[in-house]
Each structure stands twice: as C-alpha cells, then as structure tokens.
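Structural prep section.
Before we set up the soaks we want a predicted structure of the protein with PMV in place, mainly to decide which crystallisation condition to try first. Input record follows.
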Amino acid sequence: MDTSTKKNTFVKAYPNIALVKYWGKFDKEKHLAYNSSLSISVDTIYTLSSARVIDERKDRFYLNNEIQGEKELSKIISYLDKIRNIYKINSYFEIKSINSFPTAAGLASSASGYLALAKAIDIALSLNLDDNEISALARIGSVSASRSAFGGFVALDKKSEFAYSFHSADEYSVIFIIVDSKKKTISSRIAMEDTVNNSDFYNAWLESTERDFTEIKKAIVDKNFSKIGEITENSSMKMHALMLAAKPSFTYLNGDSLKIIEKIRMIRKNSIECYFTLDAGPNVKVLVKRENSKKLLAKLREIYPDFNIILCNSSNGYEIVKGDKIDQRIR
Ligand code: PMV
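Run finished without errors. Recording the tokens verbatim:
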C-alpha cells in the first residue's frame, strides 16, 4: 500500500465478550494466558484507529480527539516499544483513536483498542501481516484483543500466541447494560496479578476453565444455548469469586450489578432465555438468541430507563474503512 492510499485509512475494530473468561498471564512481557478462553465478537460499538509515522523522536496519541498526557501516552509508548523491538525499527507514530463507547470501564475497550492499533501499525509500516499475526501483535497489548481479530465465536488456547475463529455466532446477540461508565479503579493487569498470587482458588480456576472451554465448544457446535449460557454465567461468577477470595479481597461488582444479575435470572425463569456475564467492571452483558434480542432490549430499557443499554449482534471481525468523512471526525 503506498502512502497516498494509507492516508484516510482507518481500522474499525470491535470488542469481544468472553463467555469462558481468561484471567491471569504467566509471561508479563509476552502476555501469554494461563487459561484458554472463548468469546463472541460483537458489532455496534467500536474503536476507530489510524497510525502514521512521524518525523519526531516521541510518539503522539489522540483519544477521542484529545491529545493524551503522560499517563495514557506511556501505555501506548510501552506497546509501541515492544513493536519497535520486534521489528527492529526506529520509527515513531502519531496514533489517533476514537472509542464509540466508554474507555476502560470493563466494556472491552482494550480488546477493540489494541486490535485496531495493531492493524493500524501494520498498515503504517506496510508489514502485510496476516490475521494470525495481527491477533498475536494485538495480544502483546492486551490478551483479550487477540480475539478481536476474528468474528463470531473466537477461541484462544492457553499459552497460545494467537486466537482463531471457532464458529459463526449469527444466531446470538449481546446486550450491554452500562450501569457505570467511569474508568475502573483497579486495572485488570493489577487485579490479575493479585489473584494469581493471592487467591487460594486460582488452581481450581485453571482446572475448571479448561473443562468449560471444551464443554462450551461442544455446546456451540450442538447449538445447545442453555449449556452455552450455563457455562457463561458460571465462568464469570468463578472469575469474580477469585477476586472476592483474594487476600486482600476486592471486587469490580457493585449493587446495581448484583440487582441486574438477579433480574436476568428472573427474566430467564419467567419469559426470555438469557444469561449474564461481567468482566473487569460492574457493567452487565446479557447473552440472548438474536430472535429474542429486540424483545429483551425493550424489556430491559423499560426496567432500567436510567442506564445506557446497547444491543449488539455478532460481528465479522475488524474492517478497514477509508474516507475523508472519518478523517474529519478524527481531527
Ligand atoms: O486482556 P485484558 O487486559 O483486556 O483482560 C480482560 C479480561 C476479561 O475481560 C475480564 C476476560 C476476558 O477473557 O476477556
């Protein structure tokens, strides 16, 4: 790709929500996960990113059209340093990203963010990486990002460098109930380190998660939604239990999360089959069959008029978008 076609080229990447969660990495530099995970890539909400080599000795980072100060910039610089090191290059970059949804609030913005960034760097440097290599490059930013390289249900085997597409997920939707869009106070990196080192349940987590991983794959192939949902809720609850049982104990859940969990159980019992999952934040995601998603969305919006509730279907993975209109939105 020559420079003229690179101009106005953006990567649109989508988050993914893990049904079997990953929690804990054994190689902090390389970001290799202790356990296997399986996610669904979603559409509707996204990160849009571009990268450009600049003739300066320091990277620049704009998020949502605002130049970022040292704190946010340092995270991007440490990621770009890893890339400079891998490809033995000396280039510095201007990165522009827009998140269409709250950043670092447990809504998987790091997944869409690092995938978009990895692909944008690939384009800026004309590396011509394939999707496995893009997945691996995103993983060194954030493990969950490796799964956003693909659409539908995506698996990441434990200790593996890249994720892979497992199955289409066209029949399913995920509804995000955003109870709190503030940034989390404990990063998932710190929380993982704490639980790996200080939770007596961590070995049980590792064993049971590999079982969940095998079983959910079978349930997906068999289209056994009840089994997919049961494993999804259990995986999320086990991950949060790790943190509650850590020494010292902590939690990402708040009162609203717990009330919504109870409500989802009631809705499942009385009307629509649906299952909850929560990540490193208090926001709740609900897995539902696509045929019931609009009905569930309407119900949830009626029950929770004050929360931002977003319906997402399964996405096909990231996209490359071009155009001056986007260029104007990202100044
Ligand atoms: O890779 P990170 O730092 O985005 O970790 C996120 C981990 C969870 O979202 C909680 C679970 C997962 O597998 O995505």
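Observations: The first helix runs from residue 3 to 6.
Flagged for discussion at group meeting.
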